[in-house]
Amino acid sequence: MRVLFNSRAKHDYLSDALTLLSGWTREGEQIRRTLEIDDTQHAALTERVKVVADALRLRPEISRRSDSTQIRVGHGNGEPLTEGEVLLAARIEDAYRAVTES
């Protein structure tokens, strides 16, 4: 059986999913995370994120500033956040744990 979700239910579902991602903040239709990692960890994280983002056909913004890495996921042009973008944020968290634990 197929269940149809209206846009309000979908929004609530994504909001609930975002609450499970600690450290991520929502800015309009984008989500953002700042990670305190070194240059080597940044390079490893970027490679892992690229593989997942390519599979999901998404393009997060990843930038290096001083001693931190900033990540933005979402279009930011008025388009709503998608399930894929929230999934990407969760996979970025997995990659972050992997590069900081090794």
From TrEMBL:
Q: Does the keyword Cell membrane apply?
A: no
Listed EC numbers: 4.2.1.96
Which GO biological-process labels does this protein carry?
tetrahydrobiopterin biosynthetic process
- Any idea which UniProt keywords this protein has? Lyase
Q: Which GO terms describe its molecular function?
A: 4-alpha-hydroxytetrahydrobiopterin dehydratase activity
**What catalytic activity does the UniProt entry give for this protein?**
(4aS,6R)-4a-hydroxy-L-erythro-5,6,7,8-tetrahydrobiopterin = (6R)-L-erythro-6,7-dihydrobiopterin + H2O
* Superkingdom per UniProt: Bacteria
A Pfam entry, by short name: Pterin_4a
**Broadest EC class?**
lyase
Q: Give the similarity note.
A: Belongs to the pterin-4-alpha-carbinolamine dehydratase family.
Q: What is this protein called?
A: Putative pterin-4-alpha-carbinolamine dehydratase
Q: Which organism's genome codes for this protein?
A: Micromonospora coriariae
